[in-house]
Specification:
This protein has one domain: Metallo-beta-lactamase, Chain A. About 20% of the residues lie in helices and about 30% in strands. It is built from 8 helices and 17 strands. The protein has a 7-stranded mixed sheet with strand order 1-2-3-4-5-6-7, with no helix packed on it. The chain has a 6-stranded mixed sheet with strand order 8-9-10-11-13-14, with no helix packed on it.
Length: about 270
């Protein structure tokens, strides 16, 4: 019986679970016959390790989809952690965000602090773009998906025709934070995702699956930058993150959500 209430839980398929913390950050647990893989560790709120152990006693491999604070905060609770090396340079910048994050969250973020400590960061292993993790019965293929950050990756599960995408392509795409790449990099990643073999994908801040065909709408959204009027957005958690938001649809009927893109102010065309 699951007595840990720190996280919401949704079963996506046999042996595949999506988790969500109280700040709507998500992670995905994939359980094979020999190992389990945890894709992201969210913000570090709650007893993530204890929650995972109620679902499986297998050894757990952690893959960080990228180096932003809301995907690596629970790293300190695990031993085997991987991150694309192109995002290692983000980790000191994320360490510098902790005090402001604690003010805006109105609580200490002790696990995030520990996960970003020099001792813990030194334990993170570099992740190659074409890595494959055999969990026993399920193979997880790592796919480079740059744009949101230089080192953003996805995890492709061909047996389930499912892609774990982190923040690589989302309805409200953010390209205005530390590490975010120029718009053409994201557009190239969207095209790459369209050519991959999967039917549905999971994201880093939504507790549900998305159909692959919605990627065409995400691409359409990139094409309105500079053509429609942008609106200034200040990130609630870290005020120095400011961008211009461009809205494609205020409520897409297929996913029942806003589709927009936020780019850095200096990148916006007048």
């Amino acid at each position: 019986m699951n007595t840990n209430t720190d996280f919401k839980l949704q079963e996506i398929d046999t042996g595949i679970y999506q988790l969500q913390d109280e700040r709507e950050n998500c992670a995905t647990l994939v359980i094979g016959t020999q190992k389990a893989l945890l894709f992201d560790t969210m913000l570090g709120l709650g007893d993530l390790k204890g929650f995972i152990h109620q679902l499986t006693n297998l050894p757990v491999i952690v893959i960080n989809s990228h180096g932003h604070f809301d995907h690596i905060g629970g790293n300190c609770q695990f031993d085997e952690i991987y991150l694309n090396q192109r995002d290692f340079e983000l980790l000191p910048l994320m360490r510098g965000c902790i005090e402001e994050l604690e003010r805006t969250h109105k609580r200490p973020l002790s696990k995030l602090r520990e996960s970003l400590s020099e001792e813990q960061v030194a334990k993170i292993r570099p992740l190659a773009d074409d890595s494959v993790f055999d969990l026993g019965g399920l193979a997880i293929e790592i796919v480079a998906l740059p744009g949101h950050t230089a080192g953003s990756v996805g995890a492709l599960i061909r047996e389930k025709r499912l892609l774990l995408a982190g923040d690589a392509a989302t309805p409200q795409m953010c390209l205005f934070m530390d590490g975010c790449q120029p718009l053409p990099v994201y557009q190239k990643t969207l095209q790459k995702m369209m050519n991959l073999e999967f039917d549905t994908f999971l994201l880093g801040h939504f507790l549900r699956t998305f159909p692959k065909e919605i990627l065409h709408k995400f691409m359409e959204c990139t094409e309105i930058v500079g053509k429609k009027r942008g609106h200034l957005l200040v990130y609630t958690w870290i005020n120095r993150y400011r961008g211009m938001v461009y809205f494609l649809e205020m409520r897409n009927p297929q996913i029942n959500d806003i589709i927009c893109i936020i780019i850095k102010e200096e990148s916006a065309e007048s």
